[in-house]
Structures are given as structure tokens and as C-alpha cells.
Specification:
The protein is α+β, with helices and mostly antiparallel strands. It is 47% helix and 24% strand. A hairpin with a 3-residue loop joins strand 5 and strand 6.
Length: 279
């Protein structure tokens, strides 16, 4: 009896201990998961990285300093440069050996000042550069000035050139002035001036003589259609040719009738003889 009681008691204790152990085993994973969520190094790193993460910081910096953001908040572009330019030497004609004083006038029509504006004047064949004011100098076959033009201001630049021997068929001597913001930029505005050379004056005089009427009232144009007498002569020739053609046609018509009569005569006589014999 005593031995059986001990066995039953030990069995009950073992069963109780097993149940307690199973409950502890079931509760252990849940506790471990809760502890990992609050004290895990990975979670701690994530929590700490959220406010100070380099990626997050880069995103913040990009939002505040990105080129797109800067372009959006940039100021409007300045108005384009607006200029006017002119060039003149007070003459309309020239010849070899004369000195020409050119004046280049530039006006700023825009709403802002223009700095380091480049003004150029071409030096064509037939002009020799002598001098230029405001620091102008010859570069690559053109006089170059660099000036500042304030808003609404007008700047005048001068150059002096001497006329050299020019080709005999060259009628005018021309030079061109241009303004640009830099050497590589396209011209903003240009102007030209030309002077008549002796060859041009001779050609103009010849043209005027051809167009002027002579003492008889006829145009000096040597071409045949410039004289109305040619039309009268042409009409007379046409009438004469028409009359000649009509006369020739009548003559040829008469000859044809005469030949026909000669050919038909013997036949008619023969018919008459045959008729009388049969009677």
C-alpha cells in the first residue's frame, strides 16, 4: 500500500511538473518577441537612424538645395539687349588718296546697361586704316572697340581711313559696322555706308545719258525699240510684202488659167469634127 501511494504521488508530481514546463515553453517565445521589439539592436538602429539617417538627410538637402528648386525660385531672365547703330562719313563719293572720317553711333534702347559691348567696322580692300578713338584697333581686318553703354545712352566712335587704289570695275567703296555682346556671339545690329568711286560715277553718267532725250525728242536709248520710227518702218515693210504677195498670186493664177485653156483647146476642136461627120 505504502509503495503504491508513493508511486502515485511521484506520478502526480511528475505530471504537475510537466504541465508547468509546457506552460513555460509556450510563454517563452512571446516574451522573447516582445523583448526583441523593444531592445533589439536592429530596432534600436532603425529608431536612431530615422532622424539622422544619411539618406534622409540627403533627401532633405536635395529638397532645399536641388537645381530644380533653385530654378523654380530663380529671378526672371533679364531683357534682351536692344541697340541701334549707324555709320556715316558725311560724303557720298570719294577717290584715291582722300581721307574718310567715319562716325559710328550706338544707342542703348533697352532697360539695362550693357557692359563690354564690342563694336566692329570692316576695313575693305581699298581702305587703309589710319587711326581710331576710344582705344579702337584693327583686328582680323576690322576696327574693334570695347565700350560700356548705359541705359538710354548714345556712344559715338570715330575712325579715319585713306582711300587706296581700287579695281577699275569697283563702283562703290562700302564699310559695315556691327555691335555684339562678345566676339563669339552673333551681331545684334549692323549698318553700312558706301561712297561712289570714279568708276561708279562714270557708269551713272552713261546710264543718265542713255535715258535722257536728245534734241529730236527721241530717247537716248540705243536699243531699236526705244525709237518709234522703227515701228513705222516695220509697218511699211509689212504692207509692201503683203502687196507683193497678192500680185504674185494673181500672176500665178492667170498663168494657170492660160495653161488650162491651151490644154483644153484641141480636145474641143476634135469633138466638133466628130459631131459634124456623124450628121
Amino acid at each position: 500500500m505504502v509503495e503504491r501511494f508513493r508511486i502515485r504521488r511521484m506520478a502526480a508530481v511528475a505530471v504537475t511538473a510537466g504541465l508547468v514546463a509546457m506552460q513555460l515553453m509556450l510563454l517563452a517565445p512571446a516574451a522573447a518577441a516582445t523583448e526583441d521589439e523593444t531592445t533589439s539592436p536592429v530596432a534600436q538602429e532603425v529608431t536612431e537612424d530615422e532622424p539622422t539617417s544619411p539618406v534622409a538627410q540627403d533627401v532633405i538637402d536635395a529638397e532645399t538645395t536641388s537645381p530644380v528648386a533653385q530654378e523654380v525660385t530663380a529671378e526672371p531672365a533679364a531683357d534682351p539687349v536692344q541697340l541701334s547703330i549707324g555709320i556715316d562719313n558725311g560724303r557720298t563719293s570719294t577717290t584715291v588718296g582722300e581721307k574718310l572720317d567715319y562716325s559710328v553711333t550706338v544707342q542703348n534702347l533697352g532697360s539695362a546697361d550693357v557692359t563690354e559691348l564690342e563694336i566692329t567696322q570692316t576695313q575693305p580692300a581699298g581702305l587703309n586704316f589710319d587711326s581710331a578713338d576710344t582705344g579702337g584697333s584693327v583686328q582680323s581686318g576690322a576696327v574693334l572697340w570695347t565700350v560700356d553703354v548705359a541705359q538710354g545712352q548714345t556712344v559715338t566712335l570715330t575712325s579715319t581711313m585713306t582711300v587706296l587704289q581700287t579695281p577699275p570695275d569697283l563702283l562703290r567703296l562700302a564699310t559695315v559696322a556691327c555691335a555684339r555682346v562678345s566676339a563669339d556671339a552673333a551681331p545684334i545690329v549692323c549698318a553700312a555706308h558706301s561712297d561712289e568711286l570714279p568708276a561708279g560715277a562714270a557708269a551713272a553718267a552713261e546710264q543718265a545719258a542713255m535715258a535722257a532725250p536728245d534734241q529730236t525728242g527721241n530717247s537716248g536709248d540705243p536699243r531699236w525699240y526705244g525709237d518709234p520710227r522703227w515701228f513705222v518702218a516695220g509697218a511699211a515693210v509689212l504692207v509692201a510684202v503683203s502687196v507683193l504677195i497678192a500680185l504674185l498670186w494673181r500672176r500665178s493664177r492667170r498663168r494657170a488659167l492660160a495653161r488650162a485653156a491651151v490644154v483644153a483647146g484641141p480636145d474641143r476642136s476634135r469633138d466638133g469634127l466628130i459631131g459634124s461627120g456623124s450628121r
